[in-house]
Amino acid sequence: MKKLTRQDAEEIYELCSLLRDENARMSFTDIISIDDLELWFKDESISLYGIYDAEDHLTAMLKSTRGKGNKAHSAYLAAAVHPNYRKQSLASELTLKVLDKLKSEGILIARTYIYSWNTASIATIEKCGFQMSGRVMMHEYDEISGGYIDDLIYYKML
Are 60 and 24 in contact, with CB atoms under 8 Å apart? Predict the structure, then answer.
């Protein structure tokens, strides 16, 4: 695991593009240019972490957004794995390492939101010890399934 920096922007952008091309429907797909990443690098509350393979390709990425002010004890997490590297436990490996780092930085609780159809992410986050604390019913209409999907809220006390 390594903390990602501006020097990793090309690799980050490539992974975000792959996710967008497969219609992943997550926050990483909001990145439509390398310039969009600059907002992340400028924001002190955002930390990016990644796992690289032997050929130096970014295989998994996690974005941690620390709360500000009276919410500085918490962090929101989002993770993604390159399509060619899924089902290798990279997301859970990266998440657990980042959680240890966040705890050492004074974070007391980590949260994430997962769409109810995303069983792979649900399994990963539960494997990492997160518990579901609620759901936003009918969060949005999903044209792919032709129905409404819930947004599940997960947390883990560190």
Answer: no
Ordered strands of the 147-157 beta sheet = 2-3, 46-52, 58-66, 74-81, 109-115, 147-157, 131-142
Cβ neighbours, 10 Å, residue 121: 21
- Angle between helix axes 119-127 and 90-104 (nearest 10 degrees) is 50
Whether the predicted pLDDT of 100 surpasses 90: yes
Cβ pair 137, 150 in contact under 8 A: yes
- Cα–Cα distance measured from residue 33 to residue 74, given in angstroms and rounded to the nearest whole number: 29
Instruction: Give Cα 114 distance to the centre of its chain.
Output: 10
Paired strand residues for 52: 58
The tens digit of pLDDT for each residue in 3-37 reads 999 999 999 999 999 999 998 888 899 999 999 99
